[in-house]
């Protein structure tokens, strides 16, 4: 028997049989998630072609946050819009790459938010990148779509996930009842269930942060990392390992796969900005996944999932992963 025959549930079959608090997954949500997965399968194929089909390099444009867009950022955004626009269950979508939300002609009340291609700086160097998505429900289905419809806390998410384009293309998904993972069978184009009940160990010896920003961090983050670096001879009494891929999607995938913590905290380079990463497209969906896997996620003062967004492209400080480490970071923040 080949090892691959152990895995025989595809994404559609999973959605049909999945239960959240005893109830099945609404058909409209299934339709939307299948469309997202199908688009990511296409995107995975494009990403793998890279230079062969002229996809590397800058698009020569900037996004709403003034960041340079890569060709693949733009292509991924367009593919996702095309891929979900026909969903009857969708009322609108919002993307990290677009200033305003896009109403969709569906009759349903789901809202989709996404970072179409996270880890843009890694596209041209053949390092893992990915798509991050979050699904909310419009509170007033009858009213015409407004930006304010999207400004709900992470607790309102009905689904969230990512697809990481690495050596394998793997999707992590939560529907609010644990986390599951699927790997894309590149021959059939189907995502196949590979892991149930993903769990993040409460303690860890691995952290991820862009160390080049050390001199800019706030005191509690500096203290935390200093103590990790001190290893067995310091406060923590154990040695730590560090990893930084610079694609949140790949760093969080590692945290979900083998524990650890990921931090992109506030820093004083841009003191008026709370952080680099975006609440709606990155922090919220990743925090939903991490909490559902038994981990925690904070901005230092508050759980990310409890934050009430004030604008669509809001940035946030984010620290997530193994619970004991996040509690320690929160404690350090409470002492200043
Ligand atoms: P992006 O969405 O434009 O790719 O930016 C977000 C990325 C994250 O994936 C990653 O954690 C971070 O930016 C890396 O930042 P840095 O270049 O400072 O290491
Ligand atoms: Mg991103």
UniProtKB/TrEMBL annotation:
One annotated Gene Ontology cellular component of this protein: cytosol
Gene3D superfamilies linked: 3.40.190.80, Fructose-1,6-Bisphosphatase, subunit A, domain 1 (3.30.540.10)
Oligomeric form and interacting partners: Homotetramer.
BP-aspect Gene Ontology terms: fructose 1,6-bisphosphate metabolic process; fructose 6-phosphate metabolic process; fructose metabolic process; gluconeogenesis; sucrose biosynthetic process
Pathway(s) where this gene product acts: Carbohydrate biosynthesis
Chain positions recorded as Mg(2+) 2 binding sites: 115, 118, 282
Cofactor dependency: Mg(2+)
Family per similarity comment: Belongs to the FBPase class 1 family.
Cofactor note: Binds 2 magnesium ions per subunit.
Organism encoding this protein: Polynucleobacter duraquae
KW Cell membrane (keyword) present: no
Regions crossing the membrane: none
Catalysed conversion reaction: beta-D-fructose 1,6-bisphosphate + H2O = beta-D-fructose 6-phosphate + phosphate
All residue ranges annotated as the Fructose-1-6-bisphosphatase class I N-terminal domain in the record: 28-195
Residues binding Mg(2+) 1: 96, 115, 117
Compartments it resides in: Cytoplasm
Main location: cytoplasm
Keywords assigned by UniProt, alphabetized: Carbohydrate metabolism, Cytoplasm, Hydrolase, Magnesium, Metal-binding
EC code: 3.1.3.11
All copies of domain Fructose-1-6-bisphosphatase class 1 C-terminal, residue ranges: 200-333
Pfam families: FBPase (PF00316), FBPase_C (PF18913)
SUPFAM superfamilies per UniProt: Carbohydrate phosphatase
Name of the featured protein: Fructose-1,6-bisphosphatase class 1
Molecular functions (GO terms): fructose 1,6-bisphosphate 1-phosphatase activity; magnesium ion binding
């Amino acid at each position: 028997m080949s090892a691959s025959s152990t895995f025989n549930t595809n994404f559609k079959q999973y959605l049909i049989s999945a239960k959240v608090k005893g109830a099945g997954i609404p058909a409209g949500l299934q339709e939307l998630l299948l469309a997202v997965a199908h688009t990511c399968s296409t995107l995975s194929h494009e990403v793998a072609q890279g230079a062969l089909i002229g996809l590397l390099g800058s698009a020569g444009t900037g996004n709403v946050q003034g960041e340079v867009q890569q060709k693949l950022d733009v292509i991924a955004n367009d593919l996702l819009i095309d891929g979900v626009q026909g969903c009857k269950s969708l009322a609108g979508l919002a993307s990290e790459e677009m200033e305003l939300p896009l109403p969709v002609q569906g009759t349903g009340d789901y809202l989709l938010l996404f970072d179409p291609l996270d880890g843009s700086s890694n596209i041209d160097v053949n390092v893992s990148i990915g798509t991050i998505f979050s699904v909310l429900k419009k509170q007033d289905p009858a009213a015409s779509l407004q930006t304010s419809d999207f400004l709900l806390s992470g607790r309102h998410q009905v689904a969230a996930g990512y697809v990481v384009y690495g050596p394998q293309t793997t999707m992590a998904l939560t529907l609010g009842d644990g986390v599951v993972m699927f790997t894309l069978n590149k021959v059939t184009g189907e995502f196949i269930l590979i892991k149930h009940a993903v769990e993040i160990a409460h303690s860890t010896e691995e952290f991820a942060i862009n160390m080049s920003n050390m001199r800019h961090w706030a005191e509690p983050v500096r203290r935390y990392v200093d103590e990790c670096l001190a290893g067995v001879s310091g406060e923590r009494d154990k040695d730590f390992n560090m990893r930084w891929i610079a694609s949140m999607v790949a760093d969080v995938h590692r945290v979900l796969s083998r524990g650890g913590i990921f931090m992109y905290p506030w820093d004083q380079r841009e003191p008026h900005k709370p952080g680099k990463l975006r609440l709606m497209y990155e922090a919220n969906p990743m925090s939903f996944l991490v909490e559902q896997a038994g981990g925690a996620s904070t901005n230092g003062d508050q759980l990310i999932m409890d934050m009430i967004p004030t604008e669509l492209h809001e940035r946030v400080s984010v620290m997530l992963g193994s619970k004991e480490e996040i509690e320690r970071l929160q404690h350090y923040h409470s002492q200043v």
